[in-house]
Amino acid sequence: MARHYGLDWLRIGAFALLILYHIGMVFVPWGFHAQTAHPIDWVAIPMMAINPWRLALLFVVSGYASRALLDKGTGLGAFARSRSARLLVPLLFGMIVVVPLQPWIELTTQRGYTGSFWRFLAHDYFGFAKVSGLLLPATQHLWFVLYLWLYTMLLAITAVLLGGRSLQRAFDAVFGGIRLWLLPMLWLVLVSAWLFVGARETHALWGDWVAHATYLPAFLFGFGFAGSQTGFAATARWWRWAAVVALLSYALVVGIEYAWPVNVPTPFPYGHIFSAARGAQGWSAIIALIGFADRHWNHNHPWHATLTEAVFPFYLIHQTVIVGVEGALLPYGLHPAAEFAILVVSTVAACWAFYLIGREIRWLRPLIGLRQRGPIHPPMRATLATEEA
């Protein structure tokens, strides 16, 4: 497979939006590990522009990347071992070193816990029990890594049993033409509006059926799409129409959210309409974004290698920074605008520091999701002239 830079840039952009989304979670009245003292209802409106597709897109792109890695490798066994090392090692490192601050902030700011962070680490976090309703130790935002590893192993087993070529032929037959857009969209509408109406993801792995029904098909789709010439042709033809449907669906979602804000019961049938519109918005946005990336972003750039490598370390550390900084800001009662500005600056700075330091320490690289030998990076003080060269 030739490298598709458009999908790389889409992955980078999706993770950047995810970080901004998690900062937004501090301000919406949906419940988060650390929240401002004065939640703002209207923040939910822009959040809903990306909420239905942000994670599904990441699983699609991860499936695409898995196909590229498998095609470059030496077989399914080596692929499974490589992916396990690249995913499980950072997951364990994150749960032991990166994550603990998050549940401690939640316990102390929302659940009445009075112990210090060091007491929490020594006596509670590794107790494999619930503390004030929180099961510890926790994966927190790293549930994504755990689910991705599980889906990757299921994919490897399926490929062994059924064979890669037969799977690709089946994908091309099922998702030919406009069906590439319509069939997954109808599935997401079915999942959100009929099979799991009102259900919320738990990220607890077992029993999280609404998440698995959404993200496992998205991951498998990305894997099949990576080897499908008909899939890229269909996306090129339909992505603009998908963008229109995504925008119209989002308008419907906003209208219902505005009429019945959070914590206000939504009467029948508007709750079902809301869920169906979210499903249509989610997959239509994914097709539109893939088509746009294929058309406009499929080119290299001097910063491509650095940003592609930085994505995983950024993801690993970002939520701990957000929760930790907000926990430190809460006693000062700052205006939400000041809180937001501080969170954005501190999160971006901490993510870059975590990555730039970690990439230079050989034994630390695998712990933060990097290969032992990384790419050649552009100069740290790149100017417009060096970027254009």
From TrEMBL:
Stretches that traverse the bilayer: 12-32, 44-66, 87-105, 142-162, 174-197, 209-226, 238-260, 340-358
Top-level taxonomic group: Bacteria
Keywords: Acyltransferase, Membrane, Transferase, Transmembrane, Transmembrane helix
EC number: 2.3.1.-
GO MF annotation list: acyltransferase activity
Pfam families, A to Z: Acyl_transf_3 (PF01757)
All copies of domain Acyltransferase, residue ranges: 5-355
Key word Nucleotide-binding present: no
Protein name as annotated: Acyltransferase
Originating organism: Sphingomonas qilianensis
